[in-house]
Amino acid sequence: MSSNATATPSIHMPLIPALDDDHLTRLFLALALFQLACFVVFIPAWLLDTRILDSAAIWTKPQKFHISLALHFATLAVLAQLLPRDFRTGPLMIIFGYLAAISMIYEFAYIGLKAAQGGRSHFNYDTPAESTAYALMGVGAVLLVFVAMVLAVQIWRKGDRSRKGLWLGSIIGLSTGFALTLLVASTMSSTSRYVGAPLSGGGEVFPFFGWSREYGDLRPSHFVALHLMQTVPLAGYLANRFRWPAIPVVLGVTALQIALCLALFYQALAGQPIWPT
């Protein structure tokens, strides 16, 4: 237990004893489970609706978001345990936790609605209403990842340092993932996901992911940036568990993933596909 921990006792969840049964952890875990449930519920629509949009089945985008957001909020629930309960449930984390929750609900509803309508949720400026909706999605996307940055700062200030690898990996993974995600996402929002191809299709694509194999596509870089928030803390956790040197492991995994993210980013900007046909 960190010397920074308060005397407030922890009350662990009956079904997941590793998690404290506090307000913020319940919120993050509920959001993660909600997204997992949505993924299961929408499987029939995903498989049976034969409409294609931008080289992919119409429900593929909502399903990708369900998986990604479930992983994101599950990660936040787990890493929040590094904080003493009083800091985890303080006003700062609660406010940004609920802003992320509201953003998630909006993104879930709009992406699902546009899929049902057969329309595009992203890069859709066809009407003033759709332009406004897309702009609001941008704000929501920032809030969805900004809560990770807030958590990283709190872990740096008050987190449990007894597990050096997990502590360091959480701070670096959440903060670096936040910064790189904003870099790639802002580039996509100001241009397009494709470089050298119309928005309506990237030709032959990777199954499920939908990444173009014929044109430059910024989404692989975005994927790597976003999931720094999981891979680097995991590397730190494994370093603790197997008594590997924590700092070299965390910094090495971070450097490799940043290099991969930037390589994919500049490859896409050069108009080259991640895996040519």
TrEMBL record:
The keyword Transmembrane helix applies. The chain crosses the membrane at residues 27-47, 67-83, 95-113, 133-153, 165-185, 246-269. Keywords: Membrane, Transmembrane, Transmembrane helix. This is Uncharacterized protein. The lineage of its organism: Bacteria, Pseudomonadati, Pseudomonadota, Alphaproteobacteria, Sphingomonadales.
